[in-house]
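Q: I have two molecules that I believe assemble together. Could you output structure tokens for the complex as a whole instead of separate predictions?
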Amino acid sequence: SQQGEEDPQALSIQEGENATMNCSYKTSINNLQWYRQNSGRGLVHLILIRSNEREKHSGRLRVTLDTSKKSSSLLITASRAADTASYFCATRAGGTSYGKLTFGQGTILTVHP
Amino acid sequence: DGGITQSPKYLFRKEGQNVTLSCEQNLNHDAMYWYRQDPGQGLRLIYYSQIVNDFQKGDIAEGYSVSREKKESFPLTVTSAQKNPTAFYLCASSILTGDTQYFGPGTRLTVL
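A: Yes, here they are, computed for all two components at once.
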């Protein structure tokens, strides 16, 4: 079963605007990751946040994690047309082995030039 | 170049035929994974392997088989028992004690 549920399913913005995507999950987790997928390609790892962290930054990316609400958000600031892709959250549930991830259904982001 | 490769990029199969998808990595990773992705959906885990000659079923293993005879290679066979095999198949690898996965470019399988 898919643990991660993402919201919105699709997001359309103009270049320069910020994009925020949300991920909710059902069980306790060890960590949560965000991946990007360009159309018809493999996934690329963006950022990992551990269950004891609340916020993490990487370049134009900011990820927050609220374990009490079982949710995470990914913020992309000053978006570019090249950010157009699908974005997936992935969780490793507590008590499971390394690498056994559960992926959400993804948010399709379109950035218009 | 270090990376993970999958071949072929596109694969067509007649109903009732088995087909094998290739996955090779030169990242020296111990763990390898196979996922299935259907349109508009996330990834679902088919099989994973953490060591040579050992592998575990994922969430949707029925109709699939794998082998792990070499650390670098983790081929996936889609058998005729898989009722709806048309999908995008992704292979990934990681270090044994890490969760960050590195993905190949994928194979799109179409059953005619």
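A: One point stands out. Chain A has no helices and eleven strands.
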